[in-house]
Description:
The chain has one domain: Rossmann fold, CATH 3.40.50.720. Helix 4 (125-150) links the parallel strand 6 (107-110) and strand 7 (156-160). The protein is built from nine helices and nine strands. Helix content is 42%, strand content 20%. The chain has a seven-stranded parallel beta sheet with strand order 5-4-3-6-7-8-9, with helices on both faces. The chain has a two-stranded antiparallel ribbon with strand order 1-2. It is of the alpha/beta class. The protein binds nicotinamide-adenine-dinucleotide. Nicotinamide-adenine-dinucleotide binds next to helix 1, helix 4 and helix 6.
Amino acid sequence: MNINFLKVKSGRKLLKTIKIMTPFQLSGKTALVTGGASGIGRAIAEVFAKNGARVYILDFNETQAKEVVEAFKVENLELQYKICDVSKSEEVQQIINEIAENHEINILVNNAGVAHVGNIENTTEADLDRIYSINIKGVYNCAKAVIKHMKGKNGIIINMASIASSVGISDRFAYSMSKGAVLTMTYSIAKDYVNEGIRCNSISPARVHTPFVDGFIAKNYPDDQDEMFEKLSKTQPLGRMGKPVEIAHLALYLASDEASFITGTDFPIDGGFIKLNG
Length: 278
Ligand code: NAD
């Protein structure tokens, strides 16, 4: 927690100085955010950097990653990117080792992920393998590569799960499989490294308005996109989709020292989806 001082003045006369505590500061910390070139990951990268962290975006979309870094250059944020396909273990290890040579890695946000629509019958083996390699193996690759650098040094791993990790969502066979694995990998890592100073938690958003959702609607419901957007918004009892920055603020809390008593826990952030849809 940072302590700042607020000077209360009347004209030029100093009336009093108030001590202000600013929680959730990441100053001096280095964070890796996978899939940080878009949507939720982009918001996490921005919020972390604005709260003092040195942030590396790991994403395979160079154009978008560059755009994010350029967008925040004027604000002097410590934001950079590395082109990285999280499904490729050697590439991930090499990039993470390179970063670790220069900075102690304190935080990893495993956020990169892709969607898939289909039930078990119309999900092909190729679909299943693709979702597995990014959503599951991507988390495995990145967590495995950072853990050796984090052991004994208070590392934090945050995995982006989903409401689909815990409840049945129609036509999301492969996606639900992958997000269920993200949830259980979270428990497993948290348990195995609880005595190594590593905290591992997951976040489970319901629908959040990002290019992920727009792309999904455009691809699967090209003729009634507005209607589908409305329908998906209303599946959250709060009547809307989440905003990326709302997820980013939960991630900021979990990455901060204020959350030091939390590990092995999943945090739904879902507009009431899981508990209030009865
Ligand atoms: P998005 O499509 O806006 O962004 C995903 C980012 O991940 C992109 O920048 C993309 O380039 C990157 N990426 C994809 N595959 C990659 C790979 N192999 N290697 C490196 N980078 C890769 O998506 P989003 O909506 O911001 O979703 C982010 C995460 O949140 C995903 O894991 C998703 O499953 C999860 N999630 C999203 C929602 C939602 O409604 N948007 C809900 C629940 C969970």
